[in-house]
Amino acid sequence: MVNAKRQKEMKALGFLLQNDKEHYSVRFLSKAGNYTVEELNMINKIAGKYGRGYVGLTTRLQMEVPWIKDEDAEKVMEEAKDLGLRHGGTGQKIRPLVACKGTVCLHGNIDTQGICRELEVKYFGTDTPHKCKIGVVGCANNCAKANINDIGVMGRTIPEFKLDNCVGCGLCVQGCRQKALEIVDKKIVYNKELCVSCGECVRVCKTNAAIVKENGAEIFVGGRFGRGMRIGDSLGKIFEEEKIVPVIDKIMKYYREVGQKGERISTVMDRIGKETFIDNVLSD
Predict the structure, then answer these.
(1) Distance, CA of 208 to CA of 161 (rounded, Å)
(2) Residue 134 pLDDT grade (very low, low, confident, very high; cuts 50, 70, 90)
(3) Which of 64, 90, 146, 240 suits a disulfide with 216, CB 3.0-4.6 Å?
(4) Which residues, 6 or more positions from 282, have their beta carbon under 8 angstroms from its beta carbon?
(5) Smallest Cα–Cα separation from 119: which of 19, 198, 205, 33?
């Protein structure tokens, strides 16, 4: 049986005690949800040598090798280091960052992978008042559930319509899943209230009748899921792609300044008021 002190020490290193209290699952970290073929081969090697020959995926796109014996843990750490593998991802820190494939997905409005990797280099594993999760998605499909992360980024493309260029072909109407567009008298009619700024109308239009008015991301703060659920609050505007990371820098700085030990961003916002939190981030 692994004692409580050892369990806590190992958890901080990404070795999570299983329910038999004798084995660990070791969490190997991805880069924005991606592994190279070489990394996969290395993880397989450790799974075959020290585990039971299989690997599991976590909900935050990391890989865990279960059934690691306590007496083998240091050997696994040593071999992982030699193989260039990273393990960890727990504690009152920035947890593994998650991004969808919006960089290459045909629905993506921003470089999700690039943004996530930049944020990971700056923030992963750094101390925060409580655990803090960051998620990046490329569009309103929200595959990685950005707004239930402490900080969430959602790619948006706000359209503008040039009716002189519209020929009434209906391609944009066919592409709009929100039914925000219709053709009336051979011209497009736009219902802004139904639009989720997915950008599909811009992508399918052949005559430049639907063009980009704004492109970038909406940023959410204070989301969480699990024992307590809270949908994150939008900062209320679209940020150009090059400004996304600087805005998150401001959020992180303010959270570390005002957050008390044990408070997630949602708890800070509940304590001081969400309007105060957002106003101070935007005015900094």
Answers:
(1) 8
(2) very high
(3) 240
(4) 235, 236, 250
(5) 33
How distant, in Å, are the alpha carbons of 43, 225, 237 from that of 111? 28, 25, 18
- In this prediction the pTM is 0.92
Strand pairing report for 181-184 and 56-57: unpaired
Question: Nearest Cα to 155, choosing from 174, 170, 135?
Answer: 135
Tokens 């209906």 belong to 170
pLDDT in tens, 197-240: 999 999 999 999 999 999 999 999 999 998 889 999 999 999 99
- pLDDT on residue 54: 96
Which domains are seen in the chain, by residue range?
4-83 (3.30.70.3340), 98-283 (3.30.413.10)
Instruction: Answer yes or no: are the C-beta atoms of 232 and 270 closer than 8 Å.
Output: no
Helix axes 241-258, 112-123, angle to 10 degrees: 30
pLDDT tens by residue, 83-115: 999 999 888 999 999 999 999 999 999 999 999
H or E stretch at 283: helix 274-283
Q: Which amino acid belongs to residue 147?
A: N
What are residue 153's DSSP bridge partners?
136, 219
Three-state DSSP class for 274?
helix
